[in-house]
Amino acid sequence: VVSTQSTGEMFYFGYDNYMNHAFPMDELNPHDCNGRGPDYDNPSNININDVLGNFSLGLIDSLDTLAIMGDKKYFRNAVNSVINTVSFDQECTVQVFESTIRILGSLLSAHLIVTEWTDVFNVTL
User: Fold this and answer.
1) Could you tell me which of 63, 47, 51, 55 has the C-alpha nearest to residue 97?
2) 76: part of which helix (H) or strand (E)?
3) Per-residue model confidence as pLDDT tens for the chain (125 residues)
4) Sign of dihedral through CA atoms 27, 30, 35, 36?
5) How far are the Cα atoms of 21, 23, 114 from residue 125, in angstroms, in the given order?
6) How crowded is residue 79: how many other Cβ atoms within 10 Å of its Cβ?
């Protein structure tokens, strides 16, 4: 029970800091405690631009974890944020691997978890 509680505390520490300091950017830059997204000033910066596409990746990445944790309030807020702020109509090179594991994987797994746990999330199918 202690490790489960500690894991939850660590997740919410990271999630809350992402939402407070980085959202709607892709990731939280832990060194500067601000958001990190594509490097528009330097398109050849493949270390950043091959991964980040201005899709709020930190938020999308967290959906399946919020679903697994059964946190209905945070999950619903995150889903609403995705619906209201995320756009895939971006001027960027889509990286198939990153997009598949981080975007498609998180969206599909969160959907499957929530639809399997209809009693927890009060989902009507």
Assistant:
1) 51
2) helix 72-85
3) 668 889 999 999 999 999 999 999 999 998 999 999 988 899 888 888 878 888 999 999 999 999 988 888 999 999 999 999 999 888 777 788 888 898 999 999 999 988 887 776 665 54
4) negative
5) 35, 31, 11
6) 18
User: Using alpha carbons only, what angle is made at residue 63 by residues 58 and 68, rounded to the nearest 5 degrees?
Assistant: 130
Burial of 74 (0-12, 13-18, 19+ CB in 10 A): buried
Enter the tokens of residue 3.
Answer: 């490790």
Contact 55, 86 (CB under 8 A): yes
Q: Is the preceding omega at residue 24 within 30 degrees of 0, hence cis? A: yes
Is residue 52 within 8 Å of residue 61, measured between CB atoms? no
pTM here is 0.85
**Residue 25: per-residue pLDDT:** 95
Sign of the CA dihedral running 52, 56, 59, 63: negative
